[in-house]
């Protein structure tokens, strides 16, 4: 909750930058609906997961929080181009997350196809299927599948992207550090994952509109999660430029 409070504070310190990134999240949601309008399983799978790869998408927000932390004035152009300093490492990590995300979406499509004998319902029908007790086997299978992929993605990325931005480290070291953190503090990270899940689910309900604020707040909060979770003695002596 302290990380979330810090995220709200950073959002209020640079609201226009936060709203810019939030608008990008909302746009991504509508793009998913449009591109996969005939494949609702992809919409549900990617919608559930695209903010789990949020640590990669929120690099600019980490840069904003880092500048605020150092008492500097955040700038939009600086946040939008923050990824350029670690392009190679972030690129490797981004590809890994993209592959996991697409595997999740593909597996979700298979579950839908097996359940409905290839007759895919529309998006509204898919949501009704997830809420219909008569489809309990489908609901359990779909949620179990999502839980497996969500756990993998969350464990690998919960602090790795902020770490890559903040330190001179490689993608493997950052990913392993993130996994060790989850294994070492499972209760804390489980609570953090639950907070993210609930907030993102609520933000998506009104046509993804809630992501306008929830997205950037969680981005800023993730930076503070990284700063609090990684031991101070392991932090770099020189702050990121």
How would you describe what is shown here?
- With 241 residues, the chain is mostly helical.
- Helices cover 76% and strands 0% of the residues.
- Helix 1 (2-13) packs across helix 13 (211-229), helix 3 (40-49) crosses helix 7 (87-115) and helix 5 crosses helix 10 (160-166).
- The longest helix is centred in the middle third of the chain and has 29 residues, at 87-115.
- It starts with a helix and ends in a 12-residue tail after the last helix.
Contiguous runs where pLDDT drops below 50 for at least 5 residues: 235-239
Rg, nearest Å: 18 Å
Helices and strands, in order, run as HHHHHHHHHHHHH
Structural class: mainly alpha
Strand content: under 5%
Helix residue percentage: over 70%
Shape designation: globular
Q: Count up the helices.
A: 13
Largest sheet: none
State the total count of DSSP E strands: 0
Span between termini = 28 Å
Descriptive tags:
76% helix; 241 residues; 13 helices; disordered C terminus; mainly alpha
In a few lines, what is going on in this structure?
The protein has 241 residues and is mostly helical. The protein is 76% helix and 0% strand. The protein is built from 13 helices and no strands.
